[in-house]
Amino acid sequence: MSKRLKSASTAEQCDPLFKALSDGTRRALLEYLVREGEQSVHALTAVSGVSQPMVSRHLGKLRRARLVTARRAGRETYYAARAKGLAPVVQWMAVYGALWSQRFTALEGLGDDASAR
Length: 117
Known about the structure:
Elements lengths: L8 H13 L2 H13 L2 E2 H8 L3 H13 L3 E6 L2 E6 L5 H29 L2
Antiparallel strand pairs: 1-3, 2-3
Helix pairs in contact: 1-4, 1-5, 2-4
């Protein structure tokens, strides 16, 4: 008997987001953009502690995951966090958060039953 797991469409939308966020440098870059607003690659390189080519690669992965937007101004590229970029992850977590909340409530009820004995 072989069953295959099927992902819901929201879960499938989360895969590229989780992959993009799996790297600490990318998470830090995204967090910085959320806090500070639009930044140039040059500015992000100065605060990241990694080389400009690495910053550009990380930003490319965040862009493909639709977590940031990019715009060119002369020779510089500016990146900004996309507010709606994490929506699929938030929706996915809301579903599983409710499920786990119900399970924890049920477990707490079992503990109350045991202490009543």
